[in-house]
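Go through this one:
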Amino acid sequence: MITQRHTHILDKPHSQIKLLKRDHADNLPTIKANHQSAWRDFKAFILSVYANLPTQFGPPHIEKWCNGWQIRNHFFAYFKYDAHLGNAPIISIILNKKRLMIQLDWHAYKAAQSASTLANFNAWMDADLSKVVGGDLPFYYWMNDIDEYGEFMPMNRFYHDFDDQYLDTNTAWCRVGTYILAENLDNFDADSLVNWAVQTITILSDLYRHCHGKLTD
């Protein structure tokens, strides 16, 4: 189960292990153990979400808690349809020190191998947005130059803000998603948090399907 305690664990003085060894050597074993334990909880949460998703989704990619030289500042996982595993559009879940967030995003790391383009990804903005503009969950949008700790704009401003804006779909992209603030995570039990994630991903999957050009589902 994901709680506010997990976000506190992610809030540490350094991410690079060499800096933690330099400045917090006595606490480093505890920091590592706490991060690994928290990551196991995150992994269990992601797998519970996957077990409740529609069958079009392939198994999740879950990033490790440590890459050998740094202890992650967030936990990260993403989902794709089985039919689009080689493409860059993803629905990702991020837990950081500020919030648990789910977003439709462009995985730039996979862009070179992707059959769908960045312009294809941004086509979600031309889809039916009624579920993310006026639905039951509060959704937000933010450009790719806003990081995961930044302030996001509510989707009820989307049509107003983008009415006269030009988006260079060859270089920039717009994310859409929602989140739970760290201080509110303890208001959810394990089942309700999984249900929230499944509901969010299901709504975003309607837009995800628009991110692959003329490719079929």
Summary: Helices lie at 4-10, 17-23, 28-51, 118-121, 130-133, 158-161, 190-208. The first helix runs from residue 4 to 10. DSSP finds seven helices and seven strands in the chain.
